[in-house]
Amino acid sequence: MGRHVYLIGMPGAGKSSAGRELAKLMELPFVDLDQEIERRAGSSVPEIFRHQGVERFRELEAEALSSVAAGPAAVVSCGGGAPLRPGNQQLMHATGTVVWLNVPLSALRRRLRDIIEKRPLVKDPMDLERIYNERDGTYRTVADKVVAAEGPPAAVARAVLEVVT
């Protein structure tokens, strides 16, 4: 294929779990952008948010995305906020296909326990709804392809594979 597959979507949409499955199917490396940020910063994502703030995290995210985009083709799980920056949008479009893993708010609420434990921006159901409403339009605009992602990771990965090949 030669191009990246960038998975975007809400926290808890399954970008990492479906992304790992997709990478296996496509025989490509898998990159979790949040893990890449943590590796480069030497801190966890929640620690970066807590000690350096959201804006610094977004800068680190853009740097990590730029580095990954310059590398060999991979399946890339982008943090939920990565597509919010126009520069990130342009880079993703220039180097790959952007796939939105679209999960309805009701399904995200069912996944809320995991989201609250691991996500620095989602601490209660109202945060989830606010972020969903803020990002929905951006995801729709940025995505080259949209995949309904309520199912198990393997099924979502197969659905993504169908739209990108």
Short descriptors:
165 residues; alpha/beta; Rossmann fold; five-stranded parallel β-sheet; 8 helices; 13% strand
3D architecture notes:
By secondary structure, the chain is an alpha/beta fold. The protein has one domain: Rossmann fold, CATH 3.40.50.300. The protein is built from 8 helices and 5 strands, in the order βαβααβαβαααβα. A 5-stranded parallel beta sheet has the order 2-3-1-4-5, sandwiched between helices.
Number of strands: 5
Q: CATH topology, which one? A: Rossmann fold
CATH class: Alpha Beta
Helix content percent band:
55-70%
Strand content: 5-15%
* CATH homology group: P-loop containing nucleotide triphosphate hydrolases
Secondary-structure-derived class: alpha/beta
Q: Give a quick account of the main beta sheet: strands, pairing sense, barrel closure.
A: 5 strands, parallel
Poorly predicted tracts of residues: none
Order of helices and strands: EHEHHEHEHHHEH
Cα-based radius of gyration, to the nearest Å = 15 Å
Q: Mean pLDDT across all residues, rounded? A: 90
Shape, principal axes of CA atoms: globular
CATH architecture: 3-Layer(aba) Sandwich
What is the distance, rounded to the nearest whole angstrom, between the alpha carbons of the first and last residues? 8 Å
Strand order of the largest sheet: 2-3-1-4-5
